[in-house]
Amino acid sequence: MAKVIDTRTAPEAALQEAVAVLGRGLPIAIPTETVYGLAADATNPEAIARIYETKGRPRFNPLICHVADLEMADRYVRFDPLSRILAEAFWPGPLTLILPVRPDAPIHPLVRAGLETVGIRVPDGFANRLIAAFGRPLAAPSANTSGRISPTNADHVNADLGDRIELILDGGAAKVGLESTILKVVDGSVHLLRPGGLNVADVERLTGSKVIRPKGAGATIEAPGMLASHYAPHAGVRLNARQVTPGEALIRFGGTALPGEERAAIVLDLSPAGDLREAAANLFGYMQEADATGARTIAFSPIPATGLGEAINDRLERAAAPRN
Ligand code: TXA
Ligand code: MG
């Protein structure tokens, strides 16, 4: 079983052990503000191979590189002016930028799945301290078996990967609860590759222009690895439910009761007050909790698609997609 160290009560021990295990080329689970990551030395091909192996993830799927600050990022990637403005405004935070890798940068091609670009981000909190202490970038996908729900606390990680990794750093519940928003600047326009924990409206306010959506007119860029079926609980997922079938688990929003919910296996409300930020933070944990009841289906009541609701609905659609 994995050793669990709490970063809030034993930060020095956590740093020391984490740096040691990472230095041996092994992946460890770390808390970030978005979701828990399965982190390994981005310059070590064996360490990267172990991430894919531990997750059971297809190799063609590139990983996000985590660095401690903009200065460190500059050593590995080249910034265009607009990407730099985004980085300065939103790092540390739930933003990943796709940028050309410097030809001499020691980020292994396995991290990039052979691409000439790399997804890079500066996480907040303890992850940031850890990278600074380790001194090298950390590649980190979410710390879950490929296709399953992303973990937002250390218990989720332990239940899923606990017998496959040596060390889990426990930093409590993830603040944001959704993976980072992935943006790519092309010819001076910002493209959205994955909606996530950074509100796109905040980006548009900063740049003064519209972010281009993948399905929007003329957009051709797709983030590799964005599989339709993803974030899947064991139970089936039913979206936009207006009533509950007996025995279903219900995850609702905004404090609105649904007909039939008194016979649900469990009733959870993502945010009784209708706050999308709170809903995002609760989403994956509630999916785990609903799943644990053994209900055959999880019904979701409609969630507004504005602000962080865009990313929430993106994850729900993937969770509801036919499984392969
Ligand atoms: O919040 C997050 O981003 C979390 C935490 C742990 O930081 N990490 C995460 O990583 O979600 P991951 O590996 O699940 O996301 C990787 C995704 C790929 O599936 C792809 O969509 C995109 O990032 N990506 C990475 N590198 C890319 C590249 N060079 N070009 C286009 N997309 C890329
Ligand atoms: Mg993931």
CATH class of the largest domain: Alpha Beta
Largest sheet: 8 strands, mixed
Give the helix tally.
10
End-to-end Cα distance: 30 Å
Task: Return the average pLDDT rounded to an integer.
Answer: 94
Say how many strands there are: 14
As for the number of domains, it is 2
Choose one word for the global shape: globular
Name the strands of the widest sheet in spatial order.
2-3-7-4-6-5-9-10
Relevant CATH superfamily of the largest domain: DHBP synthase
Task: Please provide the ordered H/E string of secondary-structure elements.
Answer: EHEEHEHHEHEHEHEEEHEEEHEH
InterPro entries: DHBP_synth_RibB-like_a/b_dom, Sua5-like_dom, Sua5/YwlC_C, Sua5_C, T(6)A37_SUA5, TC-AMP_synthase_SUA5
Domain YrdC-like: 12-198
GO molecular function: L-threonylcarbamoyladenylate synthase
Enzyme class: transferase
List keywords for this structure.
eight-stranded mixed beta sheet, binds magnesium ion, 18% strand, alpha/beta, binds threonylcarbamoyladenylate, DHBP synthase, 2 domains, 324 residues
